[in-house]
Amino acid sequence: RIKAESYDESQGGTINVNDMKVLADSSELVTPVNFADTSFASTVKSPVNKAYGPIYQYGVNYLSGTGTKTSSVGSTGDFLFTRTGYNPAILASPVAQLTGGYASMVQTYEYSFEHADTFSALPASVRKAMLNQNKYAITEGSLPLYNNYINKNALWFRPYTSFESIPLKNGPKTSTVLYGSYIGGDSEIFHLKNGWDSVYSGYIGYTGASQSYQGNHTYQNGIVGGVTDTFYKNNFYTAITASVGSSIGETSTMYGNEDFTMLMGGVASKTGYNFEFNDGRFIIQPNLLLSYTLINTFDYTNAANVRINAEPLHALQVHPYVKFIQNTESGWQPYLAGGFVYNVMGQSQIRVADLYGNNVELPALSIKPYAEYGLGVQRLWNDKYTGFLQAMARSGGRNGIAFTMGFRIALGDDGKKVEKVKADDNIKPVSNVTKTEKPKKVQAEKQAKIETPAKVQPTTKEEHHSFIYNWMLKFSNFFAQP
């Protein structure tokens, strides 16, 4: 406030206020702040129409005393501060919680079902031959004879990245980049009861994220790990995964830098069914991905000396989608996929408290529903290796594109190729005989037995019936003797 006992305006001077800072937020919707006495209020000029407090954003208007009064509050020489929203800097925590921590966990769920994604894309006859190694063979002449290495122990690697614009509900539009990679392993296939088979998987990975909105920038780095159990039966599969991780973030705002820590965890399930056409050359696979995620941001004090108290984020996601898969003769497997993503609950609940006793609950931010669609290609080759590339576009609550790729290698010796036989049926049993070297004595006895003339067994139907009748007659005569 400028104040004096007397003023000389003969020189025509002007006081120009070209910037201002709100030191403390007001509890009122409109707050007048007296700046100049009425006697020289008209000499004050200010281009400022917006100002930020540690919590709120304000519209600024100066009452010069000339012209029409713009407010019923305040008097000549006052600056009027009217709350118009929240300072974007105070929203850094919920924005990072949703577009960083939660988005990274959802990405983890999608990529943790590596075995289901690879194995379920194969034709039913190939999958059955692999599940029953050395017991079944396939007869498709135009499909590649995939090797049954897929039921061996294996390691896999999946890097990913996405570039998106996320218009948060009740919040700012955020430019978000996600990136990271996962390393995992699959067990051999275990045969369960009633025709079920199971595979256990474990994974660990690095997750990173960056967000930018309205002059605020956040970077997050974390680690995540989990286990997956996948179950197969005929054309049906279902899998469940549990993940846990932690992330450290740093935000740069108009007040400086601030650090925070997140603890993340959740469970997800994925279920699908194959509808095959033309002996598995074309597959339509509807899928349903369900997940529950818990994100806890530990309380901290930001760069504006405001205490951030975040309640844990509880989010349910429902993601139905369908894949269209083609199995080519060369072993390439191109596919299309599309679906919708719905976030149930998933609203941030964060309270902030400044040094002057203001205790405010921030607006509940959330990610709106969005569509996800794209294409990919998978390739199995050289007895032990699988690779794929995928690009998925998103529109609605998330807008952008996500890229991922993967590589899988089976451990141990090369898998034995699935045997091809000529038969009318698609699947035929074959003998599972393991050759072992016999001791010399056994070999000699076997040789002696071979040299003894053996009775030739009948082969025709009539001879077979006569053979049985003669033995039954001898059997009854033996017991009829005194």
Topology, element by element:
Elements: E1 15-16, E2 30-34, E3 44-45, E4 50-52, E5 56-62, E6 78-86, H1 92-112, H2 114-119, H3 124-131, E7 136-138, E8 154-167, E9 173-186, E10 190-191, E11 197-213, E12 216-233, E13 236-253, E14 256-273, E15 275-277, E16 282-297, E17 300-301, E18 307-310, E19 313-326, E20 332-345, E21 350-353, E22 359-361, E23 370-381, E24 385-396, E25 399-410, E26 427-429, H4 440-451, H5 461-480
Parallel strand pairs: 1-3
Antiparallel strand pairs: 2-6, 4-5, 5-6, 7-26, 8-9, 8-25, 9-11, 10-11, 11-12, 12-13, 13-14, 14-16, 15-16, 16-19, 17-18, 18-21, 19-20, 20-23, 21-22, 23-24, 24-25
Can you offer a commentary on this structure?
There is one protein chain. The protein has 482 residues and is mainly beta. Helix content is 14%, strand content 48%. The chain has helices at residues 92-112, 114-119, 124-131, 440-451, 461-480; strands at 15-16, 30-34, 44-45, 50-52, 56-62, 78-86, 136-138, 154-167, 173-186, 190-191, 197-213, 216-233, 236-253, 256-273, 275-277, 282-297, 300-301, 307-310, 313-326, 332-345, 350-353, 359-361, 370-381, 385-396, 399-410, 427-429. The strands form 5 sheets. The protein has a 12-stranded antiparallel barrel. Strands 2-6-5-4 form a 4-stranded antiparallel sheet, with no helix packed on it. Strands 17-18-21-22 form a 4-stranded antiparallel sheet, with no helix packed on it. Strand 13 and strand 14 (256-273) form a beta hairpin. The protein is elongated, with a radius of gyration of 36 Å. 35% of the residues are buried.
